[in-house]
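Hi everyone,

Forwarding the result from last night's run.
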Amino acid sequence: MNGNPADGRFGAVSRRGLLRGATALGTAALLPLGSGRAAAQPKQGGTLRLAMAHGSSTDSYDPAMLENAFAQLFATARNGYMTEIAADGSLTGDIAESWEASPDARVWTFKLREGVTFHSGKPVTAEDVIASLDYHRGEESTSAAKPIVAPIVEIAADGPGTVVVTLESGNADFPFVISDYHLPILPATDGRIDPLSPDGCGGYVVESYEPGVRASMTRNPNYWKLPDRAHFDAVELLTIIDAAARQNALITGEVDVIDQVDVNTVHLLQRAPGVQILSTTGTQHFTFAMDTRAAPFSDNNVRLALKYAIDRQELLDKVLNGYGALGNDQPVGPSDRFFADLPQRAYDPDKAKFHLKEAGLDTLQVPLSAADAAFPGAVDAAVLYSEQAAAAGITIDVIREPNDGYWSNVWMVKPFVAVYWSGRPTADWMFSTAYAAGVAWNDTFWDNERFNQLLNEARSELDEVKRAEMYREMQLLVRDDGGVVIPMFASYVMGLSDAIGHPEQVSANWTLDGFRAVERWWFA
């Protein structure tokens, strides 16, 4: 999904196309290794056994509390959503067949697809959509999706098949926002949903569920996407936290697919007969965040010195074993349609020294807090960074923090820390979450007036070419003035049996084909 405003690609997406749900995100980076069956034709049959590195005994059906990838994929398998991010990054209709915006992108009208039913047989109507979204709204809501739906000021039905959503201000990405896995459409009774009900309108019907252990499902015979989706007769999801046990289960044929392959041992898995490795690089990235309010990080020349003092390629090679892409101090990944292909910042100790001098310094000594709770290999990455920065006269004192409590006691508390970000499906979503002035997760406490102005303007701009220009400037501002060092984007690395077929292109917005593997893949 590479591209920039100058290459002409964004012009292919018309304003009319955006309004009617034909927005394109680009092409996901796909790195299939081994003897994959991506080109095979789909066919129905068989039981998929999928082992994941996630799952907790505290998990439930509640869409407001989907705290790990097992719960998120399980929700996606059994539920339907208003919209869906396709494998190529474009936005397609799911329960919503089409949508249209007012000229200021503030009022969105969604036409619902006819003939969609819940597993219980109840037709999906506007009442269900309104109740499902309202569940996450309001002062009493404790939903993780509450910030996503907070801009909604009114949801109304215009007949049983039309929903009109009014926002507090324009948002050209709103149809992308409601594709979030927390926002399935569930059956409503008297204007309310039962969040603990397994009844959904997705491709698979729940047969049994033991949180933290397994979930069993069978194909929904009335799924509206058949025969193009939901190819497996049944799906069994398993929680296997230990990486070695998970990989051994794939090698011995106990399971057909695993997620989170250990990149340190992936070469061993590659040599196993009957196994293929699938890797996608999307929005997931690792960072070193500086508190721009605190000296010496309040001086942008110090920030630039630290950005030039890191060898990104070495970190990519040694920490990720090459399973990823170079970062460029901008959080919008190559899978985003507004990714700006800026000149790559290279390791340059001389430029780092130059910026130190501009800051009035000959040398620099700073602490860097890290723990593997931040991201796998974070401590090793910090040590490598320290060794690289020494050539620029910068001493980085690596502080190995406890894994326990890292996100409450270190992140956004200490001045220079290692951080993991899963990323977000759109540039606005990522910037609004972590870079806008004053937002809760702005972990660099950065406040740039021009950036904030552009962020607000771009959000309601429906012209894709103009938006691309704005987001390019915003990425430049973050790269050259922001307080974050982003050395690498990390791939999702999965192991598959050779018996598994999948499309040539799989989604990179989340692991396992954007959590859609259970309905997009098949036995070849």
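The chain is about 25% helix and 25% strand.

Cheers,
N.
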